[in-house]
Amino acid sequence: MAVTSIEIAEHAPYAGGEYFGDVGAYEQLDGTVHFAVDPTNPANALITDVDLVPRNQVGLVEFSADFRIVKPVDLQKGSHKLFFDVVNRGKPLSLLRINSAPENDPMDPGNGFQMRRGYTQVWCGWQHDFPTTPGFLQVHIPNASDANGPVTGRIAVTFQPNEASNSQMLSDRGHHPYPANNLDQPDAQLFVHDYVGGPSTLIPRSDWIFGQLKDGTVVPDDTHICIASGFEPGKVYQCIYTTSTAPVVGLGMAGIRDLISFLRYSDSSGNPCTGDIQHTMAFGSSQSGRFLREMLYLAMNQDEEDRTVFDGIIANIAGGRRGEFNQRFGQPSNTVEASTASLFPFADIQQVDSETGVSDGLLSRLIARGKAPKLFLTNTSSEYWAGHAALTHIDATGTKDIVPSHTVRIYHFAGTQHSPGVLPLGHIQATGAVGLHPLNWVDWRPLMRAAVANLDAWVSENISPPANKHARLDDGTAVPTDSLKSVYDAFPGFGFPEHLRNLSRYDFGPEEGITENLPPVIGKAYPSLTTTVDQDGNDVAGIRLPDLAVPLATVTGWNLRRPDTGGPGQTHKIMGSTVPFTLTRQERQESGDPRPSIEERYASKEDYLDRVEGVAKDLTAERYLLEEDIERVTDMAAERYDLLESQVAEPQPADD
User: Fold this and answer.
1) Domain ends where: 222, 243, 264?
2) What is the pLDDT, as a whole number, of residue 650?
3) pTM value?
């Protein structure tokens, strides 16, 4: 097998030895897994540059990764199911996104949902370039080289600052940059766009250098660029330059594939799960969900012996995109629209793009071999307003609904933003981005817990999950995004994006995994569609939590940039909005708000909560919500009601 050894560095009780129902206590193992993959094996044939790295004496490519396992102390009390969480920039996410653990502690058990279900939970590093962070997991991979030495080529780095500055690191989110291979580079280019997807202007090469500003002095630096006039907040910049550092990023997928295969199939004494695992599932959220889509596209759910790795997969909030996870000079954290992450295909089934003539499907390679796993594609409204989630179930012309494969379910968590909503309401995202409106408060994690339970039942008991739930053209619920402008313009101070996001047909060159055309040749745009909305501006189609069915606010998957952060009229990529209704009819009339006030909708708080509970029970009957979450959903609704009621201004003395 491709796993050559597992080194366990730490072995300790998990969560202080806490018991989780009938399963009991868990234990945590942390360490390093070592790999040696065969570059000539067909399972590795699509890994970019795997043939350009050093091999050991038996012709194999070696690398290693950090791993973590949290499993029942008594495996016989567990479910004999492995649940793999694809780390996001090294950070475990499943306990945050499924167990509702606190954001500041990604290994906290939260409500214990996954533990009570008896899962053996596994994490493994797959990304090479994020800063070393305690508790995060990385992969350690070799660089590619050819007869001329290190592989050299051009790379494009794109950024949109939220604050004015003169220097910019050549990476996303402070990750390790690809260094420029020399500081002169007269052919290097720096473009600026007023908004994402807008026309570009080339900044003269004489106006900027490879360097950064330190204590008022410009210092040469191969990992930064510096411009005397400054980078303007809200504008989009792209620097294209030459580097001679080419890590084989696709090995990260091979590592995950081979670790899970080892834990599932190996009878080695070095396997911590020997003889226990009967079923396997994977979960990835955002970047990690796009990673799973890429892994499926490359048929890397089959190991070197053509055995299935994951029986079921949840690719959450990935929309229709993939990522730079198998690209020369790949930037795995890159979320830029004009990247290889946005290439056709988007849907699971085989389609033909009528503009380019390309025929492909996300699962085409696996379907052709009869190896397609059970797959859930779950998205929030943010991915629809980003212009790509609808492409998973509507064709590339925007004129025809797609019927997914029988092994696929597609769910839209209506009226939600990319990250689960929380209280108190705030305007600032963890990335530093600031929204015009408070962030979306809808917590979609109860829906994710039901999705996990439904996938589990499908994988292990062959119980079909609930039907697809999303907007459709044939029933009129799927509409062009720009058609909703009049709805939101009617709400005082709400606003509407001046520049809606969408994907286009990008041509990076003929060879998959290598970007020859930088910037890419841009072709016709793909259609941008989303669900239609009701009179309150809330989504009509999809799985509607009580926040939409019994609303206190307009909740959206989009939010405008606050003007003082630059880029007015632009949307934030993953930020939604909460714009509460007025509490009283008088307030509504004075503000000119056409949305009925809370007192016009509900006779009392008790009336409101009765309706919330009724909607939650209906969702439970349809299996989109678990019975254990009815009380949680009702409690969250009460908390939001109390928040709005508490914000009513106290009467002031006449002379105040």
Assistant:
1) 243
2) 40
3) 0.97
